[in-house]
Write a structure and sequence with these properties.
Elements lengths: L12 H5 L8 H5 L32 E2 L18 E3 L8 E6 L4 E5 L3 E5 L2 E2 L3 H7 L1 H7 L9 E5 L2 E8 L6 H7 L3 H18 L8 H15 L26 E2 L5 E2 L6 H6 L7 H14 L9 H9 L19 H17 L3 H11 L2 H35 L1 H4 L2 H27 L5
Helix pairs in contact: 3-4, 6-10, 7-11, 9-11, 11-12, 13-15
Length: 431
């Protein structure tokens, strides 16, 4: 079948600027798998008829279903037993719009857009509607939610949406070069996260760090990075955002995406902090040619911060307790996994280059944690010294011992202030 296939490519800035045409590599030429099939994890050829039997991979078994049936208009004449929501009537044509990294997009006439998930990774998309509290929250937000779908024990098989425009990778890449569009995207994500805040769950940093451990162990990276998180870092209901799930119009509208396959294979499903979602989206944009000196990351984050609680942004993005850097690290690990799973050597090389710099970042953060601890310790000693001095009444007597203790306390206070200022000036900026 001559079906449209597209995926926003990952490329280095140097290659992006190159004017010399470059032939596709033999690897890309020879690989006829659609972009959602992890040919890097299995040597089995794609056969939709037996996907329901599963595919063994080094990272665990993947499950799917015979999606090819849904590509035939006759299949839509009768509603399957496991269907939920609205069922389309009188489907005259099924037009394949695109294959992306996690789905097949098809149009049912001019009435509906259907996302077909050949490989199933849970029910995150349908749950946004079928779980009533979340559906009530999201119905007033700038999101396009499914109105019906099909699922089995492995999760969503397909979700049906009201008809809406689908943007090509070229259109999406163009928007990634616009400061205003990136600010609007950040604002859209911020509005979504703020709306879901009422369903937030408390800090579960040990589970988030366990995710990192699991990913590092499977990928066999030489990096090791864990972080404490403040009480303000909470988990939100999963609303996955991808570049092909962004509707660029007068206002940015978001379309929920399924849980990424590599996330499903490598780690447990967790309520993730909003900053984690933001960092993942940021790295996705960066690896696909977004951001530059003229279009900095700050425009993206500023849009998000403008729509979220103060305790989520500002200094909390650069805090030694978590911040955005630990989530950038996780995002790169998952991008590395994706690159290996889908046989994208250039993306893998870029991710490894980023990870090679992790030790330097960690060393700097380690020093700053020590100076921050030193500042807190010095301040505590100052307060204790001051309390001792005034308790004994030495300032009123004017004794040399009292004066000496006051001088020492002052020096300790100056040390605390100096260490605090040093730490604050040298914490890596979130952008």
């Amino acid at each position: 079948m001559d079906e449209p296939v597209w995926e926003i490519p990952v490329h280095s800035p140097k290659r992006a600027q190159s004017k010399k045409p470059k032939e596709s590599s033999p690897q890309v030429k020879d690989d006829v798998s659609p972009p959602w099939y992890p040919s890097g994890l299995t040597s089995e050829a794609l056969d939709p008829s037996n996907l329901e039997l599963g595919r063994r991979t080094p990272w665990g078994r993947i499950w799917g279903w015979n999606y090819s049936e849904a590509l035939d208009a006759s299949w839509w004449q009768n509603s399957p037993d496991s269907w939920w929501g609205v069922w389309p009537k009188n489907v005259g044509s099924v037009r394949i719009v695109a294959h992306t990294q996690n789905k097949i997009i098809v149009a049912l006439g001019e009435d509906f857009i259907v996302h077909i998930y050949p490989l199933q990774t849970g029910s995150d998309v349908s749950t946004l509607v079928r779980y009533r509290p979340w559906g009530e929250i999201l119905k007033d937000e700038r999101v396009i939610l499914p109105i019906g779908g099909l699922q089995n024990e492995n999760g969503d098989q397909l979700c049906m949406f009201p008809y809406h425009e689908i943007h090509t990778p070229q259109e999406a890449a163009k928007n990634l070069q616009s400061r205003n569009e990136l600010h609007a995207l950040g604002s859209a994500v911020g509005r979504l996260h703020s709306a879901l805040k009422q369903e937030a769950t408390p800090n579960t940093e040990w589970r988030w760090n366990a995710r990192l451990k699991a990913i590092e162990g499977t990928l066999k990276t030489t990096t090791l990075w864990r972080a404490p998180h403040t009480k303000h870092v909470q988990g939100l209901p999963p609303f996955h955002i991808g570049l092909d799930g962004i509707h660029w119009g007068e206002d940015v509208t978001l379309v929920p995406q399924p849980r990424p396959l590599v996330d499903h294979l490598l780690c447990e499903n967790e309520r993730m902090p909003p900053i984690a979602t933001l960092a993942h989206l940021e790295q996705t944009i960066a690896l696909r040619g977004g951001f530059s000196d003229s279009v900095p990351r700050a425009s993206f984050y500023a849009g998000w911060e403008a729509k979220t609680p103060p305790t989520w942004g500002g200094r909390f993005l650069r805090n030694l307790k978590g911040g955005v850097w630990i989530w950038r690290y996780e995002a790169i690990l998952l991008e590395l996994a994706r690159a290996r799973a889908f046989k994208q050597p250039e993306a893998e090389s870029m991710c490894m280059g980023w990870l090679n710099d992790v030790s330097r970042i960690q060393a700097k953060l380690g020093v700053l944690r020590m100076t921050n601890l030193g500042a807190k310790t010095s301040l505590m000693l100052f307060l204790l010294s001051l309390g001792t001095i005034f308790f004994t009444g030495e300032p009123s007597t004017g004794s040399s011992g009292g004066i000496g203790r006051m001088v020492l306390a002052t020096l300790v206070l100056l040390l605390a202030v100096g260490l605090y200022r040093y730490t604050d000036r040298n914490i890596p900026e979130p952008y």
